[in-house]
UniProtKB/TrEMBL annotation:
The keyword rRNA processing does not apply. Also exhibits azoreductase activity. Catalyzes the reductive cleavage of the azo bond in aromatic azo compounds to the corresponding amines. This is FMN dependent NADH:quinone oxidoreductase. The lineage of its organism: Bacteria, Bacillati, Bacillota, Bacilli, Bacillales. Its cofactor is FMN.
Length: 212
């Protein structure tokens, strides 16, 4: 069964988030076209998930550098490493990914960065070679629905976008090369066109869902 992992990264409600509105249009259309697919929704601002913290880093160092067995870690270290592995394995099981996130200060929200750090793990989703990192996730695809009040997909402000380019690059590291972007942008820069911008993005989302 094909699994879609739908990841949202905003503390706003759908009523106040144009990204979630567009993402919701995609998800509704996707479920209609792919009724047998397994859709997993993961809200990084609602889910309590393990992040890479001091205990996790110390545990990794003990396992990799000191060659300790997993059973030799402290109870806290074992619990946290297992919890982090749950996130990594959840991401590894998916066949398709949809990331819905706003651009914050020209980058991604911190909780999304923490989620990414929980599954971009050397030895799990990629490994190093003499030629650099090689991804271990194959035949997968991703869509990034990015919202921003200004316009950053093209034009003079495009170099300021450190959100989608980062996500595309980090997904490429783990082997996910098929990464599309759907920008919901300019609704604050052009408030008189805000409804039109969102409506157009929702129409694009529905078309993408049908092609997915």
């Amino acid at each position: 069964m094909t699994q879609l992992l739908y990841i949202t990264a905003t503390p706003k409600s759908p009523e106040h988030s144009v990204g979630l509105q567009v993402g919701g249009a995609f998800l509704k259309a996707y479920r209609e076209v792919h009724p047998d697919d397994d859709v997993r929704i993961f809200d990084v601002y609602q889910e309590a998930f393990q992040t890479v913290d001091g205990d996790v880093v110390r545990a990794w160092e003990k396992l990799r550098k000191e060659r300790l067995e997993f059973s030799e870690l402290s109870p806290v270290e074992r619990q946290k490493v297992n919890a982090l592995n749950d996130i990594t394995e959840m991401a590894m099981r998916a066949d398709k990914y949809v990331f819905v996130s706003p651009m914050w200060n020209w980058g991604i929200p911190p909780r999304l960065k923490a989620f990414i750090d929980a599954f971009v793990i050397v030895g799990k989703t990629f490994h190093y070679t003499e030629r650099g990192p090689v991804g271990l996730l194959h035949n997968k695809k991703a869509l990034h629905i990015q919202s921003s009040g200004g316009i950053y997909s093209t034009g003079p402000t495009a170099p300021m976008d450190h959100s989608h380019p980062y996500l595309r690059q980090v997904l490429g590291i783990v082997g996910i090369r098929d990464v599309q972007a759907l920008y919901v942008e300019g609704h604050d820069f052009q408030p008189e066109r805000a409804k039109e911008i969102v409506r157009s993005a929702m129409e694009q989302a529905v078309k993408l869902a049908a092609a997915w």
